[in-house]
Amino acid sequence: MQLNREALLKAYRDMVTIRRFEERVQDEFSKGNIPGFVHLYAGQEASAVGVCSHLGPDDHIASTHRGHGHSIAKGCDVVGMMLELFGRKGGLCGGKGGSMHIADLDHGMLGANGIVGGGPPLVIGAALTAKTLRNSNVAVSFTGDGGSNQGTTFEAMNMAVVLKLPAIFVFENNGYGEYTGAEYAVGSRDIAGRAAGFGMPAVRVDGDDFFAVHDAMREATERARAGGGPSAIEVSTCRFYGHHSGDAQLYRVKDEVRKLREEHDCLKNFRRRVTDARLLEAGDLDAVDAEVAALIDQAVAAALAAPPPEPETLMTDVYVSY
Ligand SMILES: Cc1ncc(C[n+]2csc(CCOP(=O)(O)OP(=O)(O)O)c2C)c(N)n1
Ligand SMILES: [Mg+2]
C-alpha cells in the first residue's frame, strides 16, 4: 500500500522530532539540566514510528527504559515530556517520574519502564481487556534484545498465544544490552525465531527502513484486529549514543558509531527514498525540520522556565485508587 503525502510527512515529522528531542536531551543532560539517567533512542526512530503509525489512541503500548521515541511516536506531548525530564511542574507525570517513568494513559502509553522485561506482561493485560471487550484494539510491547531474554517476556508470549490475544511483541535488537553484545547474550541470536517457537508468526525486519517496519506492522496489526492472535517483529536497529548518556562506550569498536551514522541512518534513508521516488520534495522535508527545531526550542525554554513540583504534591500521583 502506498502511503499518501500526509502520512509520509507525519512519519518524517515524528522521526525527526524523536531525533532532535534526543540530541537536545543529550546537550541539556551534559549541562546538568536533567537529573537522573537518560537512555537515548536516536538511531532507532524507524522502529517506534513504523510501529505506532498503525496505532490509534485506544491502542496501548508498553515501553522500556529507552522510552522517549516510543512516547513521541504514540502521540505524547513533546513539551510535557521535556518538562518531565527536567523534573518540572507541568511535566507529563507532574515532573515526578522523569525519563524512565513517562506514562500517558490518554494516549495509550502505559509507561516507560526501568524493569527490563516489564512491558510484555502489561501488554497481556491490555490485550486481554481488548479481547474481552471485543473492541478491536491491539497492545504492543517494545522490548530490547536484552529484554528478549527475560522470563517475563517468555511467559507473556506463551500466554498471548494460548489466549489468542491481540498482542504484538516488537523486539528492538540494537546489538547491545547495556555493554554486552547481543551476539553473546542472545543464545540463539534469533529473537524472531525464538518468538515463532512460542507459536506465533514472527519476522525480522531492517530497522534502517521505515517502510519495512511499517509493512510488517500492518500485517501484524491487521491479524490482531481481526482476531488472529499475536505476532512478533524483530527490528534490527542501532543506537547512536551509549547505553545511557555519559556511557564512555569502550566496548564498541573505533568508528562503529560514525559508520552507523553514515550507513544506517533511518532518517537519511527515508529522505533519500521519498525524494528519489518523487513522493516528497526536499523542501517539504526541510520545512518539517524547521518546525521541529522550533518545537524543541520551545520545549526546552518551557522546561527551563517552569518551577519544580511543590513539596506538598510529593505523595500525590503515587497510588491509584480504584
Ligand atoms: C529486571 C532488570 N534487570 C536488569 C536491569 C539493568 N538493565 C538496565 S537496561 C539493561 C539492558 C537492556 O538491554 P536491551 O533490552 O537490549 O535494551 P536497550 O538498552 O538496548 O534498549 C539492563 C540489564 C534492569 N533495569 N531490570
Ligand atoms: Mg539492546
From TrEMBL:
<comment type="function">
    <text>The pyruvate dehydrogenase complex catalyzes the overall conversion of pyruvate to acetyl-CoA and CO(2). It contains multiple copies of three enzymatic components: pyruvate dehydrogenase (E1), dihydrolipoamide acetyltransferase (E2) and lipoamide dehydrogenase (E3).</text>
</comment>
<dbReference type="InterPro" id="IPR001017">
    <property type="entry name" value="DH_E1"/>
</dbReference>
<dbReference type="InterPro" id="IPR029061">
    <property type="entry name" value="THDP-binding"/>
</dbReference>
<keyword id="KW-0786">Thiamine pyrophosphate</keyword>
<protein>
    <submittedName>
        <fullName>ABC transporter substrate-binding protein</fullName>
    </submittedName>
</protein>
<keyword id="KW-0560">Oxidoreductase</keyword>
<feature type="domain" description="Dehydrogenase E1 component">
    <location>
        <begin position="13"/>
        <end position="312"/>
    </location>
</feature>
<dbReference type="InterPro" id="IPR050642">
    <property type="entry name" value="PDH_E1_Alpha_Subunit"/>
</dbReference>
<dbReference type="GO" id="GO:0004739">
    <property type="term" value="F:pyruvate dehydrogenase (acetyl-transferring) activity"/>
</dbReference>
<dbReference type="GO" id="GO:0006086">
    <property type="term" value="P:pyruvate decarboxylation to acetyl-CoA"/>
</dbReference>
<dbReference type="Pfam" id="PF00676">
    <property type="entry name" value="E1_dh"/>
</dbReference>
